């Protein structure tokens, strides 16, 4: 059997060599049968462990911090236990060519173990899975700032599985059975019908990805006769949301320029923004200039004016005139006010997403009879038929009914949002 023969890497040429790279981009899939909360938890745990994923066999994170990062009541230990249990029961599978051209298939539980003790969550990955997760060619870390914007598990699952292909521009063709598994709806007779799968899963998930993430996707379908049998997604960057790409900031924080900005008193977010917009070299040059100026009362304000005011100031150049510096400072202040307003709106969006996650967590713990009663009771309180239809389509993730949903669950579960509200 050819697959068992060793194929030296140097003998791989042309499409075979490129194909192995492309396949590695998204060669690992996680079962889609995760709730939105579990999927967010998985990403937070991975980001927390990433720097020591290979060097340490186990990892730790403060349980309260973990709960707040994924948006539910940090005193709700049962929900955290359920979510961790779900990750330990979830399968990750990979199928790829290794660096010698040999086929490699593997399977592992997403977490090899997890435990809670003394307010600390300890967990571990299997060594084989840790190796795959740590390789950027195999598995792409999901930006947590983008993750927080998702209010449906299907949307986040689709984003994760498409984002890994962003460099190649397409997911390639997936059989519908594979797609159903990735979305967590395999085994459902209802979603065996393509009409239902398209209306309830594909279209809403595509819409959410395109509205809330840093990529835009377009589904394409392949048929055999009259039946749709395969699906793929064309992918391109969403340039309007490209700034999200700097928000993880791990590489920027490792830069010596970042350390210098922090010493000067520049905030974390502003430091990363300046470095991303202007580059390390330009920021370092302006830092050198500011440091060389005598009598500067506000080094951060002076640096802001130099960077955001558009000045090109080599070390030997004279400082700008007081009038020019005042005008630059005024522009910088206006930009700061605009940034503060955007930060306020972003905080509201995050709080809204956290509230939706808290609702989902409560709903997931109720039995089918209780869930049906909850839905009927909520529907009875909606007077507008547009609102009622929106709820029928999107359930507790209905954005149009957000205020009513939050009020309904705050009434039924007092304190559900206490740990989330500012």
Describe this structure in words.
By secondary structure, the protein is α+β, with helices and mostly antiparallel strands. It has four domains: 1-138, Orthogonal Bundle (Arc Repressor Mutant, subunit A); 142-248, Arc Repressor Mutant, subunit A, CATH 1.10.10.10; 249-320, no CATH class; 345-412, no CATH class. The protein has 18 helices and nine strands. The chain has a three-stranded antiparallel β-sheet with strand order 1-3-4. A three-stranded antiparallel β-sheet has the order 2-6-5. Strand 5 and strand 6 (120-124) form a beta hairpin. The longest helix has 43 residues, at 322-364. The chain starts with 13 loop residues before the first helix and ends in a 10-residue tail after the last helix.
Task: Provide a quick synopsis of the model.
With 422 residues, the protein is of the alpha+beta class. It folds into four domains: 1-138, Arc Repressor Mutant, subunit A (Orthogonal Bundle), CATH 1.10.10.10; 142-248, Arc Repressor Mutant, subunit A, CATH 1.10.10; 249-320, no CATH class; 345-412, no CATH class. Helices cover 52% and strands 13% of the residues.
């Amino acid at each position: 059997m050819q697959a068992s023969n060793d194929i030296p890497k140097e003998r791989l040429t042309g499409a075979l060599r490129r194909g192995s790279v492309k396949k590695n981009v998204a060669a690992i899939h996680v079962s889609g049968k995760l709730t939105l909360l579990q999927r967010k938890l998985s990403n937070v745990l991975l980001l927390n462990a990433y720097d020591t994923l290979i060097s340490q066999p186990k990892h730790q994170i403060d349980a309260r911090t973990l709960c707040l990062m994924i948006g539910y009541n940090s005193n709700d230990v049962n929900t955290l236990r359920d979510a961790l249990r779900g990750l330990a029961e979830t399968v990750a599978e990979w199928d790829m060519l290794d660096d010698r051209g040999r086929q490699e298939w593997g399977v592992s539980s997403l977490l090899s173990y997890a435990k809670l003790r003394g307010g600390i969550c300890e967990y571990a990955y299997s060594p084989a899975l840790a190796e795959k997760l740590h390789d950027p060619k195999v598995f792409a870390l999901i930006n947590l700032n983008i993750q927080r914007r998702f209010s449906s598990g299907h949307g986040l699952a689709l984003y994760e599985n498409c984002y890994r292909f962003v460099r190649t521009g397409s997911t390639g063709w997936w059989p519908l059975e594979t797609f159903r598994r990735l979305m967590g709806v395999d085994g459902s007779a209802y979603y065996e019908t393509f009409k239902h799968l398209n209306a309830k899963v594909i279209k809403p998930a595509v819409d959410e990805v395109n509205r809330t993430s840093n990529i835009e996707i377009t589904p394409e379908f392949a048929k055999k006769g009259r039946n749709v049998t395969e699906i793929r997604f064309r992918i391109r960057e969403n340039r309007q949301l490209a700034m999200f790409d700097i928000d993880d900031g791990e590489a920027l924080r490792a830069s010596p320029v970042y350390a210098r900005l922090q010493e000067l008193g520049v905030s974390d977010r502003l430091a990363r923004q300046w470095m991303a917009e202007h580059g390390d070299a330009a920021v370092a040059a302006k830092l050198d200039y500011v440091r060389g100026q005598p009598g500067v009362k506000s080094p951060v304000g002076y640096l802001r004016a130099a960077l955001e005011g558009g000045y090109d100031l080599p070390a030997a150049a004279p400082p700008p005139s007081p009038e020019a510096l005042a005008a630059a400072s005024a522009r910088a202040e206006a930009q700061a006010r605009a940034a503060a307003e955007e930060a306020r709106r972003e905080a509201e969006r995050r709080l809204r997403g956290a509230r939706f996650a808290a609702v989902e967590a409560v709903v997931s713990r109720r039995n089918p009879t209780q869930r049906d009663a909850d839905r009927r009771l909520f529907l009875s309180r909606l007077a507008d038929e547009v609102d009622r239809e929106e709820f029928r389509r999107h359930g507790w993730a209905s954005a149009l009914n957000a205020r009513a949903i939050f009020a309904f669950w705050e009434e039924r579960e007092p304190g559900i949002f206490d740990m989330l509200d500012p």
